[in-house]
Amino acid sequence: MTGKPEDTKISQLKNLGPKSAEWLAAIDIHTLADLRTIGAITAYEKIKRTGFNPSLNLLYALVGAIDNIHWTEVKKQQKHDLVLLLDARTDLEI
User: Fold this and answer.
1) Dihedral sign computed on CA atoms, order 10, 36, 54, 69
2) Mean of the per-residue pLDDT values for the chain?
3) Are 62 and 35 in contact (CB under 8 A)?
4) pTM of the entire structure?
5) Of all residues in the chain, what percent carry a pLDDT higher than 90?
6) Quick one: fold of 9-93?
7) All structural domains of the chain with their residue ranges
């Protein structure tokens, strides 16, 4: 990686492979700065609304990418909180 960390391309971040990068590009997220600006939950929701079918592991991978950790290192409580927040936001849309 060269330049500022915020300029890091999605394909260079931990946890995010070609498919994740493709999905994120479809919602106009190309760098770590883009991902941090929108946040993991909103990015995950937009990917789902675009018609892709990501698992919750993508949500954890996005959080891990933002925090520069492997997605399996996201704490169990944080994963639980993310799912609750995602469910609450989904309920508000109905």
Assistant:
1) positive
2) 92
3) yes
4) 0.89
5) 86
6) DNA polymerase; domain 1 (1.10.150)
7) 9-93
